[in-house]
């Protein structure tokens, strides 16, 4: 039997009030830089929650995600047309491989409109696992793929530069080395 004041949820430990956790983590703040996406509000998460994280990022952006697809264009567009964005990935999603002509049409349209965003495919895709965003002032760890952002339960964790200072330059160097060895997504 659960203690008084603690909700029991199927699939969630009894000591977590899932609704309260979702409410508290739904928007980032200066104290709380963890965004929790429930997967139930895909439209809101990608259109309201993601831009709130993007606004917190300074300078040019480097993004790593092992998979890319049509949804990648939608998410990358949220970063705007002002700053330089480099997106590094490894494999095209299954759905897009099955509809390669549609993907190529969308890719051409996207590249025409967002000339500030460069996309490359890294041949050693098996070396890419985590999804993250490198900015001048932070590292953002994204729990679920950029191409399907908001469609599943996930965390987006904003780590300010002071917390990742010891390894951020190394991560950036690895990104740059992989970028040089990668091919344009065409």
Determine the mean pLDDT: 82
* Count of separate structural domains: 1
Instruction: Give the CATH topology.
Output: Endonuclease, Chain A
Instruction: Please state the structural category.
Output: alpha/beta
Work out the number of β strands. 10
Quickly count the helices: 7
Poorly predicted tracts of residues:
1-14, 27-32
Please give the structural blueprint.
Layout: H1 18-24, E1 34-37, H2 42-54, E2 61-64, E3 67-68, H3 70-77, E4 85-89, E5 91-92, H4 94-98, H5 100-113, E6 117-121, E7 131-134, E8 138-142, E9 154-160, H6 161-164, H7 168-180, E10 183-184
Parallel strand pairs: 2-4, 3-5, 4-6
Antiparallel strand pairs: 1-9, 2-7, 6-10, 7-8, 8-9
Write up what this structure looks like.
The termini are far apart. The protein is globular, with a radius of gyration of 18 Å. The chain is α/β, with parallel strands linked by helices. It has one domain (about 30-185): Endonuclease Chain A (Endonuclease, Chain A), CATH 3.30.870.10. The protein is built from seven helices and ten strands.
């Amino acid at each position: 039997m659960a203690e008084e004041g603690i909700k029991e949820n199927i699939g969630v430990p009894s000591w977590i009030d899932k609704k309260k956790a979702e409410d508290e983590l739904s928007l980032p703040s200066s104290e709380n830089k963890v965004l929790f996406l429930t997967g139930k509000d895909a439209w809101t998460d990608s259109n309201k929650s993601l831009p709130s994280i993007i606004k917190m990022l300074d300078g040019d952006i480097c993004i790593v995600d092992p998979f890319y697809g049509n949804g990648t264009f939608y998410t990358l567009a949220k970063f705007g047309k002002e700053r330089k964005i480099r997106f590094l990935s490894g494999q095209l999603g299954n759905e897009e491989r099955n509809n390669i002509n549609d993907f190529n049409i969308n890719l051409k349209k996207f590249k025409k409109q967002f000339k500030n965003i460069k996309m490359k495919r890294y041949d050693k895709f098996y070396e890419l696992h985590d999804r993250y965003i490198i900015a001048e002032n932070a590292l953002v760890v994204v729990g679920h793929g950029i191409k399907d952002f908001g469609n599943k339960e996930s965390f987006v964790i904003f780590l300010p530069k002071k917390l990742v200072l010891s390894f951020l330059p190394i991560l950036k160097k690895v990104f740059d080395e992989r970028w040089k060895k990668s091919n344009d997504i065409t």
